[in-house]
Structure formats: structure tokens, C-alpha cells
Amino acid sequence: MNLFDYVRPASLSEAIAAGSKPGAAYLAGGTNLLDLMKAGVAHPGKVVDITRLPGLDRIETLSDGSTRIGAMVRNSDLARDPSFAASFPAVAEALLSGASAQLRNAATVGGNLMQRTRCPYFYDPNSACNRRESGAGCDAIGGETHSHAVLGWTETCIATHPSDFCVPLAALDAVVEMEGPDGTRDVPLADFHMLPDETSPGGADLKPGEIITALRLPAEAAAFAGNSRYLKLRERTSYAFALVSAAAMLRMDGDTIAEAHIALGAVAAKPWRASAAEELLNGATPDAETFARAAEAALDGARPSGDNAHKIDLAKRVLTRALTQAAAGTPDRMPALPASVFASVNGASAHA
Amino acid sequence: MPDTILMPAGHVRLGSNAGQPMTRRDGIAKVTGAATYAADNRPDRLLYAVYASAGIARGRVAKLDVDTARAHPGVVEVYTPENRPALEQDPDEKFHMFAWRTEALQNDSVRYANQPVALVVAETLEAATEGARLLSPEYEEQPARIGFDNGEIYEPGSTGIGGAVTFSKGDIEAGRKAAVRTTETHIDTPLQYHNAMEPHAAVAEWDGDLLTLDCPNQALVMARDMFAKYFGIPGENITLRSPYLGGGFGSKAIPIGPYILAILAARELDRPVKIALRRDQMFGPVGHRGGTRQVVKLGTNADGQLTALEHNATSTTSSFDEFIEGAGNASHNLYASPAISTAHKGVRMDTGTPGPMRAPGEASGSAALECAMDEAAEAAGLDPLEFRLRNYSETDPASGKPFSSKALRECYAEGAKRFGWATRPLEPGTMRDENGHLVGWGVGTSLFPAPMFQALATATLRADGTATVATGGVDMGQGAWTALAQIAADGLGLPAERVEFLAGTSLQPDGGVAGGSGHTATAGGALFAAGSDAIRQLAELATNDPDSPLFGAGNAGVEARDGRLCAADDDSRSEAYEDILARAGLTALEGSGTGGRDPSIGEQWAMFSHGAVFAEVKVDPELYQIRVTRLVGAFAAGRIINPKLAQSQLTGGMIWGLSSALHEEGIHDLRSGRLVNGDFAGYHIPVNADAPSVEALLIDEEDPYVNTLGVKGVGELGITGTVGAIANAVWHATGTRVRSFPIHISALLK
Ligand SMILES: Cc1cc2nc3c(=O)[nH]c(=O)nc-3n(C[C@H](O)[C@H](O)[C@H](O)COP(=O)(O)OP(=O)(O)OC[C@H]3O[C@@H](n4cnc5c(N)ncnc54)[C@H](O)[C@@H]3O)c2cc1C
Ligand code: SF4
Question: Which of residues 57-116 of B touch A (CB under 8 A)?
């Protein structure tokens, strides 16, 4: 990798000052940034280590009842925080289904939001990629597209956002807090990752020098705790990115669904909030037929971006299942294989 | 090798140490980090070498920005085809049966993506890495030929290393006509990359024309001599040290371009040089398993017996060299059929040259054969195990020779019992678990040859009753440090603690190749012979010495046990080694031995390890994610020297099979010819959650013919049978026969 300066600022303002310089990059857990540097995809001239900044590693409840998670909270610490996991079980489940234990111990909340796509052409400096170099073209089109988008893509970029964590967050109306040279700013997570259009490949809504300081979950989000699931289909039982995934959260009113929140993962350049499907479910009774209709609505307008039409079908099936599981109620304990189709019933041995 | 020393009967026997489940002797060193792997060596004044990898699959390097790379702080030298110092051996010449053409900057051509195109040497790893990037190669690119449909199909010269391309026995036409049913099974297997946990690495240090090379290697003396060729020095000038390997799997036996370049740089710069491949560089110049496209046609009669077995394979190789995955050969020695025909073709692609990868040929071939057998069983309306039993071969189907031993029937029986096979319904898609998942059970037969190579060993018995044995054997993680020491101790009639075991460098007697599942038999045979040679001399001393209680006991009448020689017929007459040596005035006694096989044995017997693998899979009925919830294998492989290590080899092999069935594949972009998943995030191998229950049963098998130790091999056996068993279980769960490995969710989607 290239020669770079390493700085470890003591305060947020120092960090922002350092990070606003051209060619600077913030270093959190490093599980994505360092890989990109080794692959020659990222070559920052200055690496600004923000892991020791004071005050960014707390999980707190604010006076309005919302939950605020510091950007430096490690993925595993958040997932294992008892009160967080009790209020937002699908978020905890999504976190625990991501990567491996070692990676989750290092990865941070901010880094997870900011992680780059796993499009293999993005990682290969010998391929043309609009995300790496605007206007260069997109070698993924016509290539290996099993991880690519079926929703919201354009010819500019067909990549997906790979995060599990972000999927239930999008469904729960999480808000991203940022601070930069021009002050602070809040953006709903569902808008934070931008889709590609005819000219831009999309990406995160983060201006140069801005740092994600925290993530906020509104007080209302905890109302879904009793019926929340995240389901992640993958080609390996653990330690694999999602082929497709779904977060399904229901606020029940007796036998009817008072309010449904749904998002899909690995289908688009952002966690895909399925509003049409939510509307269809609001006030409906939770049955197979309703769920199937909701799944159809969620994938409305989906089209393959390559050899990945099967993802459309699978996404419907995954969402239907996630809804069914959510309707059945959040399990008392985290399943042995979180978010897995093989998540066994509570108390069962994880080993056959 | 007619001069092979067969074991002198009577003095020593296997069984005191051998056969015990001794814990790996290097285990603590490995888990505490005390074990030094090649790249852990840091001699003074060390330089670091990193090569630039080709970013195209075919063409030539038109430009390298050498000036910028050289100007990078810390960079010491940049080697390109223009300034690469001369080698004494052309890397494009196949000067040895195990020599593959390799890239050592002999010219500017690019024959596959990730090929080395320049070497940067620097004071730090970081500087060398960045220097290599700064070379920013520009290319004249030609269209890449990747994939079965894009490469040139040709008639290969051999399969594997010197194996036959075609084989036929009996009258296939007649066999087909005699069949009441025929099935035709098409199976594709992908390119696979060895990816040992320890990437290839070397530290080279010259002293005049003497070279010390720390480098993980599976065939020390052979490789040493091959390295020597490149530098025009005698093999003895090189000390190749390889005490520990973090896995080899066939990819670490021969010199490769990057090593040769690092050694060359060390000589030119007169400083030690280290090279360690990055994970992404493991997908290119260090070999891989070629892909195969196979067709198996089976004819069966009304009794469910094969009348014809045809197995044809097209295997991928590079554009410039040949290694053909001999998949069809897996059908030669397993199932009885009056007519067998196998044939191979090659397809040339712009990849590196494939090489032997754990069970080369057998792994891919067994996958197709076992799927085909399952399909034929289904067509015949028979239980797949019953179908295999009806086609059990009492003699080798290919040669008609008797088997030196074959406890496969017992493997089937014990494995089936342990697994609970008897209650398996014939129809697919009929079993569900408590969570509603589809459950399927499948079986496959394991088969692997029991070859032997050549090895030498020495044994030194000392006056204090301890001993040192030596052979340039290699522990790739399989446990040779332990199993070979157990054999050596038995050869000397000593407890293992009293025997110092030396291995892992080319300074020791040639320990042969750790490959082909023949290392324990071969190097073990040499060690045992060396020990018994020392004991023979000791017995001679004692029985000829009037002061010994063993005087006159006669050679054949003396046994070595626990550091004492005892009269075979009279336990009260015995003497400690120390006493015999002391009286003879000797400080030490040297024995030597050879391991190998008399060719006449191969002419008389067909020699194979066998096994039966039973798999349970669960499949989500709507989402089609697959999990192998149970694997039970029962294996017969002659005498088991260390059951604990053998089981770990076999379960490891089964997990490797699981990997082939569901996970592993090198995926290329068909346009650029570059790999799109050249890292462990993309190149899937199983994780613990994928293999919750894997069991290997060891079935007793005495083999008086295979070699003096009665040892076959267990290193590769577990892969064979497993791939097919899992695919067959997937069919049994879902009713879908998948034609292409690994099995993906999308292939099951209905
Ligand atoms: C092998 C592998 C498997 C994985 N599997 C999964 C998976 O299954 N599911 C999944 O969801 N993820 C997976 N991941 C991705 C993993 O979750 C991310 O790498 C991780 O979350 C990134 O967090 P980090 O703190 O290490 O970020 P870093 O690597 O430190 O940073 C990533 C990016 O975010 C920027 N950044 C970091 N923090 C901030 C901040 N506070 N403000 C502004 N910018 C910031 C950095 O500058 C950088 O550009 C996997 C990763 C690997 C390597
Ligand atoms: S899909 Fe997007 S990330 Fe991938 S190559 Fe195209 S532009 Fe780059």
C-alpha cells in the first residue's frame, strides 16, 4: 500500500480538521478500509484514526426516549448489549449474522454504514468501475453478477450495499448524525445511501470531512420488539454475505397488524425500504396470502441486472418467511445461528 | 526397486507405539506460535520481495514504470525481463517429471492473470508492495480464453503425472446392449485453488555458493535438486528447511517462479531475501485443480448389475503446459463391470497450469461416478447402498488382480449402522425435520490408491539407551512428526520418549515426497527398516557375546522390547541396550533403511484404501439453503499408526469433500480472464457451522502385502465419496439432481 500519514486526533474538531484535507480517510475498525488499501482501491495520503475520540462509544437513551448509539461502538458490543437487544432484537440479530466474530469485534457502527460494496469489479483496480472512477464505465455489467442489484440500479452502477446491520435500521427509521466542517446534520438512514442515476454511481451522503458521530433510533422503533426478525439467505451457514435478506417488524394490535416496517438487503445500492408492502400490511391480518402479496409489492419493479433474476424470486420468498417469523413473535433468546434459515428453535442443540 | 530391504522378521514389531492415539507432538508449539514457519524467519539485513501480478490473462507487458518504482523510498531493486540476471535452467523447459513451466521473468509475455511480471525488492514489505503497485503495467492484451466453451479442446499426453489418457476393458458395445437400463450423468466441477492456510513463502540466504532456503516444501530433496538446477550448483549446496508447513495439499512440492526470483535477488544483492505470497497471489502461479466436464454412462441389467461403465472427462489445463485432472480414472478400480471405458480430453485456457490438489483426479472423478451410481440406483429402483453392494468388485475391475486387502463391505455395514441408513425411504423429498426442513440421505464410496515412493532413513542407537532417527520427511499438518516417530520408536523397540526424531530438512536422508497419501508408508517404512537394522546389529553383538544373557539365543530368537533385547522363548533372558553397547565398548550404533515397494508386489496385487461415506443434508423447502447436518464415514486403510491423527485426516478430507460439494470454486470473468473471487470472503470454504457433525470410523484391515508396515494412506481418501454422497443427499431431500458443483441455492430453486 502507499505511504501515508497516520494521525490520531484527540478531539472531534481536530479529527474533522484533519479529515477535511484532500486524500484523508477516517479509520475506524479498519476491516474494510485496510482491505481496500491493500487491494490498491483506496490510497489515502492521510489516515485519521478516530477510534479513540472521546464520547463516541456510548449507547444511551435520550430524554425523548430515542436510543443513541455512538459511531465507535463495536458491532459485537452493540449486539450483545442486553437492553439494546431487547428493544431492537432484529438489529441485534442482523449484526450477529454479519461477517465473523473477529470482524464484529473490530467493526464499528459508523464503519458498517460506510462499508463499500462487495462488487468484485470494484475491488479489482484492473476493471472499469464508475464507483472507483467516475465515468470509467462498469465492468460488472455482462460479468459475474450474482451479488448485484435487482432494484434501483442503472447502467451506471448495479452494485448492492452489503450491510446486514443497515437493513433493520432502515426499516426502523434510524437517523444518522454527522458532524463536519460546516457543523452537524441528521439524515434518515433510508436516505443515507444514495442510488445510482444516469450519471452518478451513488454512494453515501457524507460530505468531505464529515464524521458519522452517532446513530439514533426513535422511541417508536422499540414498539416492534415483540415481532421482529431478520432473515439472511446465504451460500454458507455463517460468515457469508447475504444473497438476499429481509427485516420484518410488526406492531401487532391483537390479531391484526397495526404497523409493518420492512426492508430488504443485498438487492440494491441501499437497504431497500418496502413502503408499498408496508401499506398493504398495515391493518391486515397476518396470513400467508397477505404476506405473499406484500412480498410481490416489495419487489415491484425489480429487474435483473445480469444473471441474477433468481434473486427477485428469492427476495420474495425470504420476505414472506421473515414476515411469517415476525408474526410468530420474536424468540425469547437469540437463536444459535442468528438470522439463518437453520436458526434452531430455542433450547435445541446448534449441532445436529 | 529390487533392492528394497524387506523387514527382517523376528526382532522388532509394530504395536507398542504405533497404533496409539498419541497427541500431535508439535501441537503445543503450533498453538503457542513457537513453531517457526518459513516466513517467520528474519535473518539480519533481510530484504523483502514482492512481485507485480499480471492484470490481464493473455498478451504481453508493454510498459512498466520502473523509474517510479525504483524511486519509491526503500526500494532497492526492480527486476523485469530486461534486467533479470541469467538462470542456468530455462523455466520453460520440463527438465523433471515434476517440473512445470513457470514464470521467472524469462520474457514479457503474460499467459494468465496474476502471473508475476516484475519483482520489487525493498527494505520493508510495505515499500516492496507499493513499489510493485507503482510499476503500473501497461499491456498489449489479447482476448482471454476461459471456460469450457472458449478454450481449444485437444488430446492430452497424459493424465495427472504420467497417467493414461484412455482405458478400456471388455466390450462396451456388448455391455450397452446387455443393459436393460442406461443412465447418462453429466457433471461439471470447477477450478479450485489449494489455498493452504500458510501462503507460499521463502527466505533465501546465500553464503558464497551455498544457499539456505527456508521454504515450505513437500519433497525436500527432490525440490532441493530442482532449485539447484536453476543456479548451476550441486544440490548438496542447498539446505532446504521446512520444519512446519501450514498445509500443502500438493501445491508445495516444486519450485515456482516467485521462489526462483527471490533466490536470484538474494544472490545478486548479497542479502537475504524473503518472499511471501499474498492471499490473492495464491490464485495464479502456485497451481490449482483444473475444472472438469464429465459424462458417466452406465448400463445395468435386470439384477441391478453394471454391464457397461463409461466415464469421459474434459479437463482444463493452461495454454502452455499440461496437467489433466484424471477424473475418469476414478472409475477403474471400484465397481465391477464387464466393460469399462474411460477417456480424457484437455481444454486449454489462459490460467496457470493446474497441478496435483489433494486427491487429484480422484476427487472430481469420484464426484461424477458417485452421482452416476445414485442415478442408476434410482433407475433400477434400488436403494443406493444395495446397488453399490450388487456391484461390489471382489477383484480389481481394471486389472482383474486380487486386492491386497479390501474391507469395503465392512465399511458399508459399519457406516450404515452408525448413520441409521436402514430406515431411509427410497423416494426423494419424503423426509422432514421438526422445523419443516427437507431431509435427504446419500451415500458415496471412497477409493484411493496406496502408492509408495522411495525414502531413506537412519537410526542411531546410543550408549545411554536413547536413539536418534532421521529422515527428510515433511509434516504438512497431517501429523508426520508424530506418526513417523511412533513407527521409528517401534523399529527400535523403544518408547517414543526415548527417540529423538529429526525430519524437515534436506540435510537428512531423502524422506521422499509427502504426497499421494504415501508418506507414512514410505518414510515410515524407511524408519522402521533403519531401526530394525540397528537392532539387528545389536542382537548380533549380544548373541555372540558369551557374557550376555542372550549368548547363543540366535538372531531370530531375540526380540526388542522397551529398550531391552529378550530371548523370544524365555522372558527371563534379556538385556538392556545400554548394557550390550557398554560391553561392546560402543558409544553408538548406526542403522539405515530404505522405504519403497518391490515392483513385483504391484504386479500381484491391486492396492487401495476404501471407505463409505453417508451424508445427511437439510434443505429449506422454499429458500433452498443447504446444510450438511451429518457426515459419517467408515474407512479401511490397512494398519492405522495413530487413530487420532488418522481420524483428523479423514474428517478433514470429508470436510474438503463438503467444500467441493457446496462451496469451493474459482470464478473467472469470462471476458477478462481474471478471477473475481480471489480472497477468502469470495472463495468459500466451509466454516464450523457448515460441518456440525463429522465422524470417521476406522475399520480394521490387515494387509500383509501392501508393504511391510501394512500401512495404506488416509490423507486423501476422505474427499472421495463425500462429494457424491452430499449431492445424492441433496437429491434425496429435494428430488433435484444438480449437474454442476458446487451446488448453489439457485440450482435448486423451482
Ligand atoms: C471477510 C468479510 C466478511 C464480511 N461479512 C459481512 C457480512 O456478512 N455482513 C455485513 O454486514 N458486513 C460484513 N463485512 C463488512 C464489515 O461489516 C465491515 O467491514 C465493517 O462493518 C466496517 O467497519 P469498520 O469499523 O471496520 O470500518 P473501517 O474499515 O474502519 O471503515 C470503513 C469506511 O468507513 C469510513 N468510516 C468509518 N467510520 C466512520 C465514521 N464514523 N464517519 C465517517 N466515515 C467513517 C472509513 O473512512 C472507511 O471508508 C465483512 C467484512 C469482511 C472483511
Ligand atoms: S457495479 Fe458499480 S461498483 Fe461494480 S463495477 Fe459497476 S460501477 Fe463499479
Answer: 73
